[in-house]
Amino acid sequence: MTLLAAQRLVLVAVGVAVALWLVDRALLWLEARGRIYYRRKKASSGTLSAAFLSVQAALEPGARHAAEERRASRPEAEEEGDPPEPDDEVRRSEPRLRLR
Prior knowledge:
The chain is mainly alpha-helical. Helix content is 60%, strand content 0%.
């Protein structure tokens, strides 16, 4: 192996390592924003079962009923007792804190 070929091999290996690192950082960024489950957060069993039911509903039309019942049985945010979102008018009328 010549020196030029060895240098090219090292540069390709470094390039692949940098590309993998960038992909890892992008996936962690998406995970931090709640878009995907990747490395730090694990999907719940409910999420996985809902995904499998959706796939099964696509493959077997008779399974669609089970997927719809599962979605309908999930509690809504309003039923959990979360406070209502304030109206835009209420937000605008609140005084703003200014830091100096």
